[in-house]
Structure formats: structure tokens, C-alpha cells
């Protein structure tokens, strides 16, 4: 015949073992809560057998499973609490970011026509296009129009200018072409900004 | 989770309980702070919400972490001090919100269960 103390100890040890995937502080808290419950119940019902009290508490595995399920929606095993209630904001880039990247890619090339300039300009434009396409702020048609007008067409114009030998910094006609392209990109960005979804 | 034969039968009740239990626990604290064993007795007396007692403590722990309840120790005339749970302002707000949406929810479910062909109009 086991003593009350050893029955309680065995029970809490089983909970501790079953809850081993819980963060340590969470596990200790659970054990303290259960120990407190047993102590209070014994004080309130002196005649109740410890076995009865433990049976009412329930299966240690069920308790441990519930505790795991309550731990940040099932991400058990993480050692620290991860900011309770902070909603994940994945994929929610501010709508201004792709528009700025797209529009500024051209002035960037115009200001820095030397070697890193065009490369960064291209990176801006590609990143902007990707962010635009993955954004939640526009419908598919708007995205396609935006990418065509603000990324593909300007890229084609710039590539043509480069191939025809002028380069982005070759005199007044090139500057005019650049400004026209810039106006097109800025106009497209302004339109996208106006039609965006909140 | 270990779905045994008995839990299979009780699945509907368990699913429902999972959704509403925390609000019922919050409701029990509406008028005054309560300690753990006291909360468990009240749930047990309700019948439908009775659950394996030990599983309520992880729930209380989460409510505390989510700042819906606070706890204080109070001495007792009999036995050890008790840890009392009380609603915070956000706990009260969560309870009020649940109280507001529950009747519509309950009526919608009732309508589905009692009407053979529920109207396709909006149920909101």
C-alpha cells in the first residue's frame, strides 16, 4: 500500500515526464498549480482519498497534452514565450515599398551612371516587381499592368538605349527619353497607389 | 491527443467545450475573484462543461499569460493560501465580446439543427 505522499509524487512525476516538451518555466508552473490543487482539495475534503483526488484531476497525459496545446497554439518546445498575441505579419509589405523601388530605380541609374548604378537600378526594379506581384494590395490585373508599365517597358527602353550605343547619359535625346520613361513609371506608381486595397 | 473509444463518442462535446470553456471560466470571475478549486467545482456542477479537472490549469495559465486574468494569493481560514483569479480589463472586454456574439451564434446553430432546409439567405 503506497502512502498518500508517494501516490501524489508519482502522479506529479508522470505529469512532469509527459510534459517534458513544455518550456521549463511552463512545466514548473503546471506542476505547482496541480500540487496546489491537491493541497487545497485535501484541506477542503479531509476524508477524500488521495486516489480519488488524483482520479478527478485526470490522466496526466491528457493534462500534459492540453498544456502543450495551450502553448502558443502548439509550437511546443520553444524555450521562451514568443510575445503573446503578436500577430504574424508575413507577406504584408507596405504598398509604398514596391512602388518606390520601381520608380526610384531609374533616377538611381541617371544619378549614378557608373558601374554599380545600373546593377542596383536593375535590382531595385526586379525586387519592386516581385514585391508588387506578391503584395496583397492589388488584384492580378493591376499587378500585371503595373509590372508591364513600370518594370518591363522601362527595362526594354533602357536596354535598347544601351544597345544602340548611347547609354543612359548620352546627351539631350537620351535625357528626354529617360524623363519620359520616368514619367511613365511615376504615373504608373501613382495609379497603383490610388487603386490599392487597404 | 489520444483518441480512444470513449473520446470518439464524446468528440462533439469535447470540441464544443474547447471553444467555450475559457469564456465560461471568465464568466465565473465576473462578479468576484475565484480560486482554482472553486472554479473547477462550478464547472463540474454545470454538467456539460465538466472536464478532466487538471486540464483547466493549463487554460488558466494561458489566460494569465494573455493578460485576461490576474492572480493574487489570499490566506484562508482552512488549509493553505489560495491563488485567486480575477478578470483584468481586457479579460472583461473579451467576456463582453463573447456575451455579445454568443446569442447570434447559438441561434444560427439552432436554426441549422432544427430546419431541414435552412434558407440560403445571410445568417449573419
From TrEMBL, chain B:
Pfam families with a match to the protein in the record: PadR
Under Gene3D superfamilies, the record lists: Winged helix-like DNA-binding domain superfamily/Winged helix DNA-binding domain (1.10.10.10)
InterPro entries tied to this protein: Metal_resp_DNA-bind_regulator, Tscrpt_reg_PadR_N, WH-like_DNA-bd_sf, WH_DNA-bd_sf
Q: Where is the Transcription regulator PadR N-terminal domain?
A: 25-96
The record's annotation in SUPFAM superfamilies points to: Winged helix' DNA-binding domain
Q: Which domain of life is it from?
A: Bacteria
Instruction: Name the chain's protein.
Output: Helix-turn-helix transcriptional regulator
Amino acid at each position: 500500500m503506497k502512502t498518500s505522499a508517494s501516490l501524489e509524487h508519482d502522479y506529479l512525476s508522470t505529469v512532469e515526464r509527459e510534459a517534458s516538451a513544455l518550456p521549463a518555466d511552463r512545466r514548473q508552473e503546471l506542476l505547482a498549480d496541480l500540487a496546489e490543487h491537491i493541497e487545497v482539495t485535501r484541506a477542503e475534503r479531509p476524508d477524500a482519498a488521495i486516489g480519488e483526488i488524483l482520479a478527478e484531476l485526470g490522466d496526466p497525459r491528457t493534462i500534459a497534452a492540453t498544456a502543450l496545446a495551450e502553448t502558443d497554439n502548439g509550437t511546443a518546445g520553444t524555450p521562451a514565450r514568443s510575445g503573446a498575441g503578436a500577430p504574424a505579419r508575413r507577406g504584408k509589405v507596405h504598398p509604398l515599398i514596391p512602388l518606390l523601388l520601381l520608380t526610384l530605380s531609374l533616377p538611381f541609374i541617371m544619378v549614378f551612371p557608373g558601374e554599380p548604378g545600373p546593377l542596383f537600378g536593375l535590382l531595385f526594379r526586379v525586387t519592386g516587381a516581385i514585391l508588387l506581384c506578391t503584395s496583397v494590395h492589388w488584384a492580378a490585373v493591376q499587378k500585371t499592368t503595373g509590372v508591364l508599365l513600370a518594370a518591363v517597358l522601362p527595362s526594354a527602353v533602357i536596354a535598347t538605349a544601351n544597345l544602340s550605343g548611347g547609354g543612359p547619359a548620352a546627351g539631350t535625346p537620351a535625357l528626354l527619353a529617360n524623363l519620359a520613361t520616368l514619367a511613365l513609371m511615376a504615373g504608373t506608381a501613382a495609379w497603383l497607389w490610388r487603386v490599392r486595397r487597404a | 491527443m489520444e483518441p480512444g473509444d470513449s473520446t470518439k463518442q464524446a468528440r462533439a462535446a469535447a470540441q464544443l467545450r474547447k471553444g467555450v470553456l475559457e469564456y465560461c471560466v471568465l464568466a465565473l470571475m465576473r462578479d468576484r475573484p475565484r480560486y482554482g478549486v472553486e472554479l473547477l467545482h462550478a464547472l463540474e456542477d454545470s454538467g456539460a462543461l465538466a472536464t478532466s479537472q487538471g486540464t483547466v490549469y493549463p487554460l488558466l495559465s494561458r489566460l494569465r499569460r494573455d493578460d485576461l486574468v490576474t492572480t493574487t494569493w489570499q490566506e484562508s481560514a482552512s488549509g493553505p493560501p489560495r491563488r485567486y483569479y480575477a478578470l483584468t480589463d481586457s479579460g472583461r472586454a473579451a467576456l463582453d465580446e463573447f456575451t455579445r456574439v454568443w446569442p447570434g451564434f447559438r441561434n444560427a446553430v439552432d436554426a441549422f439543427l432544427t430546419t431541414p432546409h435552412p434558407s440560403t439567405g445571410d445568417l449573419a
